[in-house]
Amino acid sequence: MRTWPGHPFPLGADWDGQGVNFALFSENATKVELCLFDRADDPKPSVCLPLEEQTNHVWHMYLPEIFPGQHYGYRVHGPHDPAQGHRFNPAKLLIDPYAKAVAGNVQWTDGRMFGYRIGDPQADLSIDDRDNAADVPKSVVVDSAFTWGADKPLRTPWDETVIYEVHVKGLTARHPEVPEALRGTYLGMTSPAVLDHLTSLGVTAVELLPVHHFVRDQYLHDRGLTNYWGYNSIGYFAPDIGYAHSRKRGEQVREFKTLVKTLHNEGIEVILDVVYNHTAEGNHLGPTLCFRGIDNAAYYRLVDDNPRYYMDYTGCGNTLNMNHPRVLQLIMDSLRYWVEEMHVDGFRFDLASTLARELHDVNRLGAFFDIIYQDPVLSRVKLIAEPWDLASGGYQVGNFPLGWAEWNDKYRDTIRRYVKGDGGQVSELGYRLSGSSDLYERSGKRPYASINFVTAHDGFTLDDLVSYNEKHNEANGEENRDGNDNNQSWNCGAEGPTNDPAITALREQQKRNFLTILLLSQGVPMLCGGDAIGRTQGGNNNAYCQDNEISWFDWNLKDHDRRLLAFTRRLIHLRREQPVLRRRQFFQGRRIRGSEIKDIAWFRPDGHEMTDEDWQDAHVRSLGMRLAGDAIQEKDYRGHRIHGDTLLLLFSAHHEPVQFTLPAHQRGVRWERLLDTSDPEEPIGHKQFRGGTAYELNVRSTAVLRLHKTR
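Given the sequence above, the corresponding structure tokens read:
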């Protein structure tokens, strides 16, 4: 086979129409071999070729007779000295870190995926010299050509964004209107029935749980389970083959691009949940799949005085070494690839605080943030941080740099406690409803820096949140020890499913309360996929390993599920139609020029404004929030003045009805009801109420009223 020296860039396997340039970084290797395979399941390569050229620690070679669809892997030689951080083992075929597609999944047979001999008294200090080529996924050369047509970034403004967090497979695996062959796939999400659900709901972006190629862990495989969520990445450029309709020769790339293009045509952005904080290789006893065998000391954070072991800020066994320029380059190249080649619109960074650890402490001005801030591509997409990790000092809510939005768990916890009926919540509730200015205003951020959520993939679904006091994770095989111990004590009646209409009615009302507060708060709402149709996981609040009906959406909707869906659509429509619910500036709590009333005001049930004492009163569970539509003082992105209605939102977590005196800033004020969670199907504006009169706010309910404008 003819070989040419090739180039050290770009890294990975780059097809130029005539052949493929292969380039692999390894700083400490002594020899690198490229192995070519005819099929993904071949146990032996058709040929192995040494990469004899090395430039700046990049090993490279050009093969003029190789084409897209070629399967390949690397064998990397070097010192095997785990005590010093080196774990080279040429018996192990390795995945290319820059592979654009990966074929197959890890086969856990006889321990061949591990670089050491399992059961050896020296443990990971020993070496296993058995060939694992039959069991390891193969990297695939791809053709990047795709007919994008007029597709371009949607760039939906943050203040108009409504996020729908969803799992590719879970959304469609049981959908009766999705062709059976496409259920659970990228193409399944492009089915008309799914698109209709998303567009009629009114969401503007889907946030996909990880789609980078990931590993199904051995310990789960041995228990008959799998890694369903996918937070176990091994291929940062490759869409996971498990969600592909076609499992051949890199077709998953084309299918993912089709998904993005189709959603864009419907006005829906695609945000990826990405896991750059750790890899699927685990701790020192984990398998050798990719980075560990290519250059362990370069790719991973090792313990300074004992590099046999890994620094673990993630709880997953290892941490990528963001201090190494080539690792930083890997992540930045990956992000740019998904934006420029795959056309995605943004990213949610799992355990993002880990990416800011340059020494040990989190550094909000670290190199990773500096580079993104200056990058002409990445600085323009949506960047969302999960602003914590599992190590000391990792909790950084409110501290990420300008340009970043954050998952706001303070919002989640406050709203949950308030709706449940806990006392002493209204002071913090006020901040959360109005955009969390206490977290974001001082640093110059906007209200949309707060990604508001009540439920997410990790935890109870909304239906389970109001139906269970305890977690029920028995199916995970850990005797219900895993997952958070919430002990919510929701007082919604019987534990789990019930035929009692009173209990069902209370639960449905609490779900409406949560959704109303979430979708009408300032900031960016994130709706957990399936919550709008009553999805349940049977009380499992850690369904990471349940690739089955526990996690998949059930599209056989009951009557109350259909009513909940209609109510959620109504809320999202109301948010879209009322600019005062999605301000781009924080409230000032004072009259703005041209307005008769303050831009925001808070009221007690007696109609008087809240005092400092009221905010600190642990017994207060009912309050009103008036938002002045004529005091927005903002312009849209076309420079037009934003106008909106003045709204009054009434909240009560009290166990008895509350007579709420409606505010009247002038004689003749009238309010028309837009919705009430205790009477969700009444037509908008069907009833009107005079200012100064009492509105009966029912037990545990939320109401929204609009200031009636006289013509």
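The chain has a mean pLDDT of 94. Try to locate this feature in the token string yourself.
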